[in-house]
Amino acid sequence: MNRIINTYRAVVSDKLLKLMVAALCLCLKAEADSTNIGLAFPVHSQYLQNGLVINPAYSGVRGALSGFVSFRKQWFGITGSPNLQTVSLHTPFANERDAVGFLAQFMQYGFSKTTSLYGNYAHNIKFERGKLSMGMKAGLDIISNNFSGIKTVQPDNVFTSNEAPYVLPNFGAGAYYYDERIFAGLSIPQFLSYRKMAINSVQAYHSFSDYDFIVTGGGIVDINDIIMFKPSFLLHYSLDKSKRVKQFDISGNFIFADMIWAGVSWRTNEKAMVGIVQMNVNQQLMIGLSYDYPLGFMNSFRNGSAEFCLRYEFGTKVSTANPRYF
User: What is the pTM of this model?
Assistant: First the structure.
């Protein structure tokens, strides 16, 4: 009897997961045909190790030519769940006042793909204790939908052909302050919004009510000679009345001998607990792994999300006596 019940539950869960993904794609199709084209901001669990993914003002903060790659698999157990790959490179100029960077993100979810390519520029103002970096980014998002891949019970002309990709230029800005003990950042990822006017035709427009703000902050607390504690937070806040708080993370990481990072993060909107482990192999190479475990409603349908990252810094000036924590 238990075997029959477990088999029944597995079949029902699989049907529900497929139904959820199909419903998501139908909603995306309806939204694209009628109103605005949504520019989703991807979720990152290890944004502290590559602030460029959330703030263009992070360009050059590492003090060296810094390369970063990451892969994130969202929602194990759900067919068509998001996959996200990120590649970035940024460096300060010789004058240490200006910096440039490049960020590429490739996301696939269901029958949709988004490619984001952005160039970044930042200018630093040096204070007695720290630096204030002000940055801007410009680039484009390319969105393509393969709706012909959706299997319907009966043939439907809506899903027999694919739309031409949408090429959506955009730009954003941010500010980032940091010193040896604290950091704080504020960014607006996108200034422009888009609406669909006709088949394969879009119109850019500007509206303050569509603005999103990403606020970050944190610091370093010494526990003893070899252990430090780094509390931090991230708030993704929207002026859109339909959903003000899109993401709110509260994190705490322990740093052991400037080599091993281990901590947890609580993502309130998803009700997910995130475990993070990172290792500085040497002064130039860092590898990291995180796992998001759902504790809310989605716990019944998915097994969590995982993210792997690697950072390498060329010709870094960082020393063991003065490591960079932000």
Answer: 0.81
